Structures are given as C-alpha cells and as structure tokens.
Sequence to fold (256 residues):
Amino acid sequence: MSMRGHRVLSGYGSTPPIRIAVLEDDEALREEILLPALSDYGFSTQGAASAAELYRHMLSQHFDMVVLDIGLPDEDGLTVARHLRTMSNIGIIMLTGSTDRRHQIEALHSGADGYLIKPVDLDVLAAALHSLARRMTPQAHGFVAEQSPVSRWRLEAGGWRLVSPRGKIVALTAIEQCVLTTLTCASEEPVTRESLIQALNHNRYDCDPHSLEMIIHRLRRKVLSQTNETLPLLTVRSKGYILPSDAWHKPTITVG
Fold:
C-alpha cells in the first residue's frame, strides 16, 4: 500500500519528516526495497548510487541521516563515513554483507552510529533510524530531544515512532501510524471499527473488517516481539477499540 495521499493528524504531522539519504549501489535493493520501505515508515528519502552522487545531493539538500553501504564502486563506505563525520554531526547507519566483526569495529571507529548486516530487517532499520533521531541534539537537526524517562506509551516523530514505557522504540508503517493516531486522538470513548476503516480508506488504503482485524493483530504481535511489552490497545466488544488513558500519553490533537 502506498503512502500517496496519506492524511496525517495535524498535531503529529506538524513535525517535519526525518530526511534520509540512502547510499547503495545495488539499484534493485535501493529503488525497490530500501527507498519504498523507508518512505512507508514516514521518512523523506533520497537515493544515491555512488559517493559522488551523494555529495552532489548534499550540496542542494539537507539530510538528517545517511544509510550507507560499505561496498561502493567509487569510494568505500568507511571513507565516506569518515568524510561525513568531519563535515557534520549527521547520523550514519552502515549496511554490509560481511559478518566479520572487524568491519563492524572499523565502521564504528569511522564515525558510524550503527551497523546492520544484510539482508537487513526493515523493521530493525527503521527502528534504528528512529532511535538515532531521538539521541540527536535539537541544535544539530531540529529534533526535540526527549531524555526524560517514558512513563507511558507515546507517539513521537509525527506519529511514526511508538515509544514504550521502558523507552523501547517501534517504527510504524503508514497503516499502523493511521490506526494509532486515530485512536490517540479519540476521547475516552471507543473508536468504532467503522470509523477506523473509514480513516484507513480515506488515506487510500483498501480496508474491510477482516483487514482491520489483521492490522490490529499484526501490530500487537509486532510491538510485543520488539519491546517484550504488551501494547495497551483494547478491544471493546461490539463497539471497537480504545487506548486506555492511564497507559497512554495523549497530547491535544486536532484533525487537519
């Protein structure tokens, strides 16, 4: 499902998207997997096939973070990482097909903030980018640093990042973001299944009662597997779904 036409809730959507450059010389991996997937997680993306192309993009665009392959045709990723680190405090996540831990150590010494082995789990990559974004200072990239402990479940980064009470991060897809922001904006009354289906269809997702049940089931399972915490998203019999107010931080949000 595409994010095209996706309608966000203004209280969350006022946060600008995190801008990611993806430097990967494998065109199919870059154009067919990484860029579409990261876009579906709410990131603003720009691809590059070589270090030279990345540098050209950086002359006219600002990026918050770079996803960087180690093996490149013109300049190896470790050299690129060192160059980027001398230029700025940009976030760097490196990808490699090598399992040699020496490469991991060298990548971190070169200035990388994180290191993932291919084939990369897209949930893990998106969560790593969100985790890095939370750690970055507001002065560097315009993020609001949230260093205080999280006592309740909350949505951040325009609703694209779910943070558990223990501070674990789950990156949300566009569909999951739509469901949780719709529920978060609700009052103490349950949101009916029909209302959620309408919200999803309004965002150009084809949804029916069975699809909604599967979305909720997969979201609960995903959150449990990534945080080892149970998502407090309750089913209200014959009515719909609700996020209990005592478990959630619910900012004042209006639908725009």
About this structure: Residues 84 and 90 are 7 Å apart (CA to CA). Residues 1-11, 139-147 have pLDDT under 50 and may be disordered. DSSP finds ten helices and eleven strands in the chain.
